[in-house]
Amino acid sequence: MLEAILNIFKIPDLKKRIFFSLGMLAVYRVGCHIPTPGINSQALAHFFAQAKGTLLGMFDMFSGGALEKLTVFALGIMPYISSSIIFQLLTVVIPSIEKLSKEGEAGRKKITQYTRYGTIVLSVVQALGISIGLESMRGPVGELVVPSPGWGFRLMTVITLTAGTAFIMWLGEQMSEKGIGNGISLIIFAGIVARIPTAILNSVRLIKTGELSLFILIFIAAVMVAVIAGIVFVERGQRRLPIHYAKRVVGQKTFGAQTSHLPLKVNMAGVIPPIFASSIIMFPATIANFINIPWIRDAAQKMTPGNWIYELFYIAFIVFFCYFYTAVTFNPSDVAENIKKHGGYIPGIRPGKETSEYLDKVLTKLTFAGAAYISLVCVLPSILIGKFNLPFYFGGTALLIAVGVGMDTVAQVESHLIARNYEGFMKGVRIRGRR
User: Fold this and answer.
1) Are 425 and 4 in contact (CB under 8 A)?
2) 142 phi and psi, to 5 degrees?
3) Residue among 400, 397, 410, 330 at smallest CA distance from 362
4) How far is Cα 169 from Cα 31, in angstroms, rounded to an integer?
5) If you write DSSP's letter for every residue of 126-176 in order, what string do you get?
6) Contact at 8 Å (CB) between 267 and 235?
7) How far apart are CA 85 and CA 329, in angstroms?
8) What is the arithmetic mean of pLDDT over 426-435?
């Protein structure tokens, strides 16, 4: 491992890419501490202390604490992620966008351009909603979060937050092009892990005061290590379906019979299901923070992480979105048709309709296993953290993203090393990312 790390600095191009990505991440973290004008920061911090278990709390986790301080990067990269997901879903619904997605590089560039426009629109809507909501918030002694409310504050907030998101989007694209790893994913990763030092310091403080047992902290840390190991194992897991290709004659060339495989991941949907599920379930709790009606607040209280009603709905939505997103992104009929066109077949299965039905059957079983895995990873940490009253929230969704991005980035670094005849991170083992 140490030798592989030292080899990185022997490759000028790889070293340059890594330092470029680190530099861009440093710029992002600096921006997360530049406050938006016109905000009473102390009153806002008090409000967010009451907003745990809501959409605001989850978005603040992804932004690395930028939303809690309402910095210029408060919206984070979430508008871009939402826009990307929307256009990915529209690819199945709207024929013209589906046609663009099949036009190669030119079509992908056009969809990327539409995604950027969608990001700006979503940022404007979210920033306007946040600015209006902030005007009604009050601190612990009744002071206003926004001392000078009005359209002047709203327009300034919309422009600032939208520009911040656009700049983050540019940073991510630059990192993907000139750095190492996926830039957008690394920004989310940085936002999540940035809160770890604070969580560690808070844990040490509680241990010193006797509010937290050292044994409990060690137990939780052991559980997290086990969960991370499980995530790595399952994310690399595949069901490989054998495909045989008959002898073919193309022009004057004859290609002999070949055997290949079709890899089907256990977790085809990635981290989309828990993000969607969290957003939907936390929506009532988020609205309750702006509405002072007792029964609405009581109902919202039951829909917060750690409550059995919340966890039950959370699992149900995760299973639903696993099947829904897999159905949107993987079409068994198209795959079966492509295999048939290239003269391939799955042993024991007739090409065409029977192959499509077989793929659908296998995919249904894999998706169920993937949904069970995601549910366990997302629910278990939340229950343990809530039960032992730990001073931080680093739940399953964050773990899935952090571990997955780490695997992908390390896999890219190792590819550079091996391509230049250097030893990888693990001798005799090829590190494989999620893709």
Assistant:
1) yes
2) 90, 5
3) 330
4) 13
5) HHHHHHHHHHT-B-TTS-BSSSS-SHHHHHHHHHHHHHHHHHHHHHHHHHH
6) yes
7) 11
8) 55
For residue 191 the two structure tokens come to 């936002």
CA–CA gap between residue 76 and residue 71 (Å, rounded) = 10
Phi (first) and psi of residue 106, to 5 degrees = -60, -45
What is the C-alpha to C-alpha distance for residues 365 and 261, in angstroms, rounded to an integer? Answer: 18
Which one is predicted more confidently, 348 or 211?
348
Look-up: residue for tokens 């629109």? 121
Q: Six-digit token pair at 207?
A: 């241990």
Helix, strand, coil percentages in the chain from 3-state DSSP, rounded to 5: 70, 5, 25
Show the tokens assigned to 212.
Answer: 């937290």
Residue 166: the pLDDT is 93
Tokens of 428: 């005799």
Q: What is the four-CA torsion angle of 124, 127, 131, 137, rounded to 10 degrees?
A: 150
Phi, psi (rounded to 5 degrees) for 138: -135, 155
The per-residue pLDDT for 287 is: 61
What pTM does this model have? 0.76
Cβ burial of 209 (10 Å; 0-12, 13-18, 19+) is exposed
3-state secondary structure (DSSP) of residue 330: coil
pLDDT of the residue at 163:
92
- Give percent of the chain above pLDDT 90: 6
Report phi then psi at 144, rounded to 5: -75, 140
Q: Which of 192, 372, 184 is nearest to 269 (CA)?
A: 372
CA neighbor of 396 nearest in space, from 410, 407, 386, 409? 386
pLDDT of residue 37: 83
CATH number for the domain formed by residue range(s) 196-393: 1.10.3370.10
Query: Residue 245 phi/psi, 5° resolution?
Result: -110, 125
Asked if 413 and 14 touch (Cβ cutoff 8 Å), the reply is yes
Selected residue with higher pLDDT from 299 and 418: 418
Where do the domains of the chain lie? Answer: 1-192, 196-393
Cβ(366)–Cβ(157) under 8 Å? Answer: no
Integer Cα distance of 107 and 98 in angstroms: 9
What CA–CA distance (Å, rounded) separates 277 from 63? 19
- Average pLDDT of every residue of the chain: 78
Q: Say if 1-192 and 196-393 have the same CATH topology.
A: yes
**What DSSP character marks residue 74?**
T
CATH superfamily, region 1-192: SecY subunit domain (1.10.3370.10)
**In which element (H, E) is residue 254 found?**
strand 253-255
